[in-house]
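USER:
Before I trust my own judgement here, I would like a peer's view. Write it directly below this note and I will take it from there.

ASSISTANT:
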Amino acid sequence: MTEADWRVLVSKQEIVFARTSPEQKLIIVKEFTKAGNVTAMTGDGVNDSPALKQAAIGVAMGLNGSDVAREAAEIVLLDDNFASIVVGIKEGRLLFANLKKSIAYSLAHLVPEVVPVLLWAFAGIPQAQGPLLALCIDLLTELVPATSLAYEEPEALIMQVPPRNVKTDKLTSFPLLFYAYGQAGMMLTGACLLVYFLTFRELGISGRDIYNIDYKYFTGSGEDDDYVTSDGTRYTGKEQNDILARVQGGWFLMIVCGQAAHVWVCRTTTVSIFNHGVFGNRITNMGVVLALLLGCFVTYTPGLQMVVNSANPNSLFILYGSLLVAALLWGTSEARKLFSRSYPTHWLNRILGW
């Protein structure tokens, strides 16, 4: 066969080579690999070992295969059943998909952790997220929900998705980062800002009052100069510290509650969560409850409040923010999944579909 013949063959979607010898198997693997394909080769004899070694994935028979073939292969079929290869592909896709879900969930909370620093640096408003509270999110409340996504069952359409391109389809692709930072992260931040400004407003401090305060007030030291609002209300340094603790406690708890709503969204990427089963993952169910309990423990425990600089936030504001972020996350996510299922080849899926 000439190079032109091989160019025609490797461009086919499906092709069968019948009655091939071990030497021809090796040639087939080399030609398809040269064309940029990821090749898998099955075999059981000693003569098949060169092709098994050459292929990206060598699959040997476990019952009737030779020792040489098994050592040359990456995968051994213990039952010698080719249908097990399909099961293995499904498990591999599930593993890859669940890793992406866990990454998308974990990255989203970084936005409401970074935004307070940026607002403090460029707008001069009081710091909304304390460093110890940020560590409590990263090392405490996020662990079980993020890990629970590793136990997610495969989606109904997992074997209908085309094979991924190993060169371009990475774990942290642009659509995933755009979703985590540009969509979910911004929604979480919006809910946190709602709680932030409502807490200040409840205490008679408007958004204009806290803008560009020259980093002299609400620093958390308790020794700040007296702060006077536009309507003449005066707050001492200790009162400013108490207000800041309430604000930071509300921001922290809002992130915890928002992520508790977000984890359900991340359980599927194409199938509706209502078809997949809202409470089908018991680890996620327990993880959400544990995260909320830990968040409340950090926020409301008297002795711990002094350590992390937190105080009891207004529970009604947390409820407002939680309902808002849950509605936004679930609504936009279900709409995106419906669009992805209805128009799988649309160009928007290259941006929105992760």
